[in-house]
Amino acid sequence: MDVVGDDREYEWSLEGQRWLQDAHGRFALTHVDGQALDSSELDLDFLVGAQRAPDGASFLPAAFSHCPQTGKPLEPVRYDAQRRWLPPYGNGSGRRVVENDCKLDSAEQIVAALFTKLSASPQSSLNDHAELLTAPRKNGLNFLVANLGGHREALFALDREGSLFLWQRQAKQWATLRPETTPIGRSSLPSWAWAVSLREQGAQQRLILAGDEGASEISVHPVTGRYRLERCHGKAIGAPGDLDGQTFIPQQLPDGSVCLVERHADGWRQHPIAHADAALMSELSAPLRLPSSRRLLWVGEHGYLSVKLGETLDAQWLAWPVGATARPEYGPPFVDGYGIWQLLFSDGVQFYLRLDSDERRELRGTRLGTGHLNYKFNVRLDKPWDENDEHVNPTTRDVIYPFVEFSDQRHLLSFIVRETSGLQKFFDASQPTDTHYRLERIGEPPLEMLLKVSQPWNAQWFCYDNALWLYIDSSGALYRWNV
C-alpha cells in the first residue's frame, strides 16, 4: 500500500490489480494487468471477482478476506451453474421442459416467485409490470447466461451476423465484444433450433457455436472487451449438443460430405455419420439430450440424426417412413416411459411414430408440445394422442404455443393467438397479429401481455438477475419483470 496524495489517498497493488482508496475508505479499481480502467460503471464482481462494499454502491478487492470498514468476513464471488440459461429453452436442449435433472433452480424460483407476486397485485397484467429495455440490436438476437471469462454468471447476446454483446448490470447498457482476429460470422439456424453449448476449461467456460462458416469455440476476455475464436471450417447444419462432457456439431465439410465434429482441448475431431445425406439433413432441431440412454437426437424435416455414446461413438441418419415429414418447429418429440414419439405428416394423415420402431399412433388435429405437455389448439392434453371431452372443454381455433414448461412447480411460459385459420396457415403467415404472451401456473388463470407481433414464436424467454425477461424478435423489444 502506498500513499499517493496529500488528501490521504492510498494505492493498493493486489494480484495484478491497482486499487485507489480515498479518504472515506472507498475503493476504485484503476488498472488490471497494466491496463487502465474507468471502473465507475463496470461490473467488477464479474470482471475481477471484486466484492460488494457495505454501501452496496462500490466494490472491494477480491484479495480482501474481511471488510475493512466492518471487519466482517467477505464471501468470495463464485459462479453458480444453477443460474445459467442456455438457449433456446434454458438448458441448451431442444426439450422445452425445465425439471430437476436440468439443475436450473434459480430460473424455477424466479418464475414461481414472480407468478405469486404478480397474481397478488391489483394490476395482474404483465403489461402493467414490464420494464422495457434497449436491446443491442433490433432483430436476430439470442440470449444466454453463462460465465464466459468472468467470476460469476453474466448475460450475453449474440446476433445472427455474429456480433457478441455483454450486458453491464451496473450501467444497464450493452457493451460490444470485439474479435481479436477472426469474427464469429453468421448463423442461419431458426430461433427454435439455435442452441449453444459450454465447454469447461479449468475455471473458465468457453462458448461452442454453430455457424454458416463452421463450428466455433469462443473464449471471452471481458477486461479487454475482446474474444478469440477457433473454427472448424465448413457449414454447421445443426446446433451443438453436449452430453457427458462431450460436445458434437453436425457439419457439412468443404468437400460437401457430412460428419459430426467434436471439440476437444487439443482441437477438432471428426466422426462419420452413417447414411448421411446433406440434401435431406435440413431444418434440424436443437438437440434432444437423453442422458439415461447416453444419446443425442437432432430432429429434421426428413429424418433424424442419432448419436449414441459408448465404447465407440455411433452416429447415423435415419429417414422417416416414405412420404412422411416432420415439423420440428411445432415442438420436440414427446417422451414417456415407453419411448420417444415424433409427430409426422403423410398424405393428410397425422401420426406419432415411436423412434427405433414401427409403432404408430394416429390422431386428429396437429399438436404443439414441450416434450411433456401437449396442446391441441386451446386444449391441454397429458399425452398427445389423448382426446378431450368436447362437452366439457370444447376445442376452439385458438393456438397455444408452449415455450418453456417448469414441470416440478407446474409453471408454463407460452403465448396464445385467438381464432386462427389453422396451424399451418398460422405458421406460414407473416402479418402482425394480436398475441398474448403468458406466464401461468397450470390450472390457474394466466398472467398475460398483449402485443401485436409477426411470427410470435420467434421470441425468447430467459431468466437472469432475479428477473424474467422476454425478447420479441420481430419488434426488437426486450422486456423485464423483477421479482
Question: Can you describe this structure?
Answer:
The model has no long low-confidence stretch (mean pLDDT 93). The longest helix has 15 residues. The chain has four helices and 40 strands. It has two domains: 59 residues, no CATH class; 402 residues, 7 Propeller (Methylamine Dehydrogenase, Chain H). It is globular and about 85 Å long. By secondary structure, the chain is mostly beta strands. The protein has an eight-stranded mixed sheet, with no helix packed on it. The chain has a five-stranded antiparallel sheet with strand order 1-2-3-4-5, with no helix packed on it. The chain has a five-stranded mixed sheet with strand order 8-34-35-36-37. A hairpin with a 2-residue loop joins β14 and β15.
Mean pLDDT, to the nearest integer, reads 93
**How much of the sequence is in beta strands?**
35-45%
Give the termini separation: 41 Å
Low-confidence regions: none
Q: What's the total number of strands?
A: 40
The total tally of domains equals 2
Backbone shape: globular
What is the CATH domain class of the largest domain? Answer: Mainly Beta
Largest sheet: 8 strands, mixed
Q: How large is the count of helical segments? A: 4
Here the CATH topology of the largest domain equals: Methylamine Dehydrogenase, Chain H
Brief description of this entry?
The protein has 483 residues and is mainly β. The chain starts with a strand and ends with a strand.
